[in-house]
# Entry
Amino acid sequence: MNQKNSLGIDLCFKDLDNPIDLFEDWFNEAKKTEINDPNALALATVGKNGIPSVRMVLLKDFNEKGFVFYTNLNSRKSNEIKSNPNTAMCFHWKSLLRQVRITGKLTNVSDADADNYYNSRSYGSKIGAWASNQSSILKSRDELLNSIEEFKRKYSNEKNIPRPKYWSGWNLYPTEIEFWLDGKDRIHERLLYSRKDNNIWEKNLLSP
# Structure
């Protein structure tokens, strides 16, 4: 028989007041069981036209201040974020039969944080940030490959490649975080944390 927490749901939800602590616990479990990219998440944004779009990105940092990913600031996702910073993330860890949904508002990370992460990337990834005009139409694949070779010649010193000004990170400051666990006969277990005005998190069970 599965152990339950004080709310009557699976013990994996624990009894924590802060959802960031619970996310860290679940994320650490996912890193043990997910074959590829346990930090992969679906990012949903909405542009000026009101039409939503979603894509997979990789979580690169998280803490009390939010959840961080990096991208080209001229990409479709970034342009949509600039017009509407309200967004949502969803992690799905199939190996654990768990999901985490996060909603909130995005802001840019600091230049120092962007520099630190950019400098940790491989040479090829740094070159790619320069060479790819992300989300723009390519006349052919060779156009991109030629751009990559051009920037390799320009930045041949692998230890000295500056970060493009149009490449940085976004930080999602969460207002809601929902934890979901698969249940028998589709009777799933859901726990929602909502941030209140006093910066205290309120917990509520949700019906499946």
Q: What stands out?
A: The first strand starts at residue 40 and ends at 46. The CA atoms of residues 188 and 208 lie 5 Å apart. The helical segments are 19-33, 76-83, 111-120, 123-131, 141-154. The chain has a mean pLDDT of 96.
